[in-house]
Write a structure and sequence with these properties.
7-stranded mixed sheet; 179 residues; 7 strands; alpha+beta
Length: 179
């Protein structure tokens, strides 16, 4: 056994339900991601509330080497979510039959270790356990996220333009998990 093994430095990442105690760490990681990647596109006025919307069903964090390095949420459809409506129009199932995977981010220093895949699996499993179809929206310019969802086999429902503010129109790709 090497000293790296004894410290847990080579331990695989793990995911667990997010607690209120995790929010500070989540906000630290989110700020890193925003500085590096521009996600979220618009920094929220109240970041804590952005991570805890009233529509939230559950959220998870990923840990690596004892530190929070990622986050994902699962919510009911809300204002601005395009994927639930596209799914509903294609299937005839109401938007209440969907759950939106959202607020996925991984610390830049922790990427390449399967953390995004791990967090997505938690959210998808939880949606399916509730009998809901997992869907999501992603800014079309976020090519890394798009690549992840497509690598995981998510089905592109379409791309829509959304007016986020008077001067900000954004192309959003909408996906649904495969059955």
């Amino acid at each position: 056994m090497t000293s790296g093994d004894a410290s847990g430095a080579d331990a695989p990442p793990s995911a667990r339900r997010r607690t209120d105690r995790d929010l500070g760490d989540c906000l630290r990681v989110l700020a890193e991601v925003h500085r590096r990647d521009g996600y979220p596109v618009n920094w929220p006025d109240v970041p804590h509330a952005w991570l805890t919307p009233s529509s939230l069903l559950a959220a998870w964090v990923a840990e690596r080497d004892g530190r929070v390095v990622g986050h994902v949420g699962l919510s009911r459809s809300g204002t601005g979510d395009a994927a639930p409506g596209l799914w509903s129009s294609r299937t005839g199932v109401g938007v209440e039959g969907t759950a939106v995977v959202n607020r996925l981010f991984v610390a830049p220093s922790a990427r390449g270790h399967g953390i995004g895949v791990l967090l997505m699996a938690r959210a998808v499993d939880a949606a399916r356990d509730r009998g809901l179809r997992p869907v999501l929206d992603v800014v079309a310019s976020d090519t890394a996220a798009v690549a992840l969802y497509e690598r995981l086999g998510w089905h592109l429902l379409g791309t829509v333009d959304q007016q986020w503010s008077s001067g900000q129109r954004v192309a959003v790709r909408c996906y649904a998990a495969t059955t």
